[in-house]
Amino acid sequence: MASRSCLTIILAAGEGTRMKSSMSKVLHEIAGLPLVGHVAKAVLGTGGETDLAVVVGRGAADVQKAVGKISDTARFYEQTERLGTAHAVLAAREALTETHDDVLVVFGDTPLIEETSLRAARHKLAEGADIVVMGFRPENPTGYGRLIEQGGKLVAIVEEKDATEEQRKITFCNGGLMALSGKHALKLISAVKNDNSKGEYYLTDVVKLAHAQSLNVIAIDVPVENVIGINNRAELAEAEALWQARKRRDVMFSGVTLIAPETVFFAHDTLIEADVLIEPNVFFGPKVTIESGAVIHAFSHIEGAHIGANTSVGPFARLRPGSKLAEKAKVGNFCEVKNADIGAGAKVNHLSYIGDATVGADTNIGAGVITCNYDGYNKFKTTIGSNAFVGSNSALIAPLTIGNGVYVASGSVITDEVPENALALGRARQVNKEGRAEILREKYKAIKASKNK
Ligand code: UD1
Ligand code: CA
C-alpha cells in the first residue's frame, strides 16, 4: 500500500453554530490539540505518504495555522458558500486533477478517527474497490445517512431527510468518511446534483452514480467512536472523555501504573516511559515527557516539562513550561517550578517558587525559598551550584549566582553573588534583651486594664 499514492481531503468548512463559539468548530481542542489536528495526525499516521488538502471556511487563517503545525506541506482551499459535502470536496478540485491512486475524504470534526480504519479503507481500494464508505452502527441512527446494500455491494446512501419509512429502519449508517479510487473520484463528484430535500450537493450521491456505472462500491464497518462528529460542547466533552479513556488504556498497557486512571488527564503528546507511577488527580498539559521510575504524586499539574528517571513530583506540585528535572530530583508539595533545571538528586521539597533558574546536582532548597526573578518589567536568572544548601524562607534576588557547596542561612535575602563554599547571611542579627519580656507583659496588661474601665 505504501507504493500507492494518496490524496486526503479534510473538510473543515463547517460553521459549527451549535458550538456557540467565536472560533471555527474544528479549532476546539481535545487533549490540548484542535479537532482538525487530531484528524490530520491520524491521516498522516496511516503509513505511506499522503498529500493533504484542507477545505476551509470561517477562521481559515487559524485553521491553516493549526494544520501547519502538523504538516508543512498541506494545501488549503476555501469553500466560500456552503452548498454541501460534494461541493466542499470540489473546492480542492486542483488537487483532485492530479493523479492519485487513492482519494480519502474525511471530516475535520471527527477527531477520534483511527489510523487502522483509514488503513482498512485504503486496503480495500488496493484490493480493487472503487469506493469504500466507512459505515458504523450507532445506537440511535436518527440523523445519519443510511447505507443501502444489495448482495454485499453498496448501491446508495440515503440521507435521513430523503429516506422512506422502510429505509429509516436500517441501522447501518454512513460515518461520513469515504475512500475513492483516484481514477474515478473527480468525475463522480463533479456529476453530483443538488436534487434533494436540502438542495445540497451530497458527496454521498457518488455511491448511486458509481453503482449505475457498475463500479465496485462497498461499505466497511468501523468502531462507532471513530466517526463521532462534534457539533456542540457537550459532544466535545464526550469525545474528550473517550480520547482520555483510550490514552489511559494505551499508557497502562505500555507499563505505566495509574492508581485511579479516570482521574488522570493527558495531553495529545504526553510521553511516558514504562515503570512510571501516577497517583490520582494529575493533569498534564502539552509537551510533557517522563522517564522510567518517576513517581507523580496526587494533585499535580504539569505542562511543558521533562521529568527524569526516578524522580519524585508532588503531591500538589506545579511544573510549568521549561521545567527539567534530572534523575532522582525531587519537587515536593506546594512547589512551583518554571523554566528551570533541577539537577540530579536536587531537592525542592516544600512551598518554593523556582523560576528562570538552574539548581545544581544534590543541592537542597529549603522550605519556602523563592527566586525573585521579576521586577515587574524584566525577568532575571538565578544560578545555584551543586551540593549547596539554601536555608528555609530565603529570597534569592535575581540576577544571582550562588556557587557550589554554598550554605545560605535561613531567612536570608540574597542580592549578591555567593562564592563557592561560602556561608551567606543576609538577615538582621538577633539581639536578646534579658528580662524584657516580663516588662512588656506588665505594660500591655496595664493598657488593656485602662481600656476596660
Ligand atoms: C453527513 C453525511 C451523512 C452521514 C453524516 C455522518 C453527507 C451528505 N451526509 O451528514 O450521510 O451519516 O455526515 O456524520 O455527506 N461541510 C463543508 N461544506 C459544506 C457542507 C459540509 O465543509 O458545504 C463539512 C462540514 O463542516 C462537516 C462535514 O462536511 O465537517 C459533514 O457535513 P454535515 O453538514 O455535518 O453533514 P451531515 O448532515 O452530518
Ligand atoms: Ca455532521
From TrEMBL:
- Main location group: cytoplasm
Residues that coordinate or bind Mg(2+): 109, 231
GO terms for molecular function, please? UDP-N-acetylglucosamine diphosphorylase activity
Which residues are noted in the entry as UDP-N-acetyl-alpha-D-glucosamine-binding? Answer: 11-14, 25, 79, 84-85, 145, 159, 174, 231, 320, 338, 353, 364
Query: Which residues does UniProt assign to the signal peptide?
Result: none
Identify the stretch(es) annotated as Linker: 234-254
Q: State what protein this is by name.
A: Bifunctional protein GlmU
Q: State the organism named in the record.
A: Pseudochrobactrum kiredjianiae
Give the organism's phylogenetic lineage. Answer: Bacteria, Pseudomonadati, Pseudomonadota, Alphaproteobacteria, Hyphomicrobiales
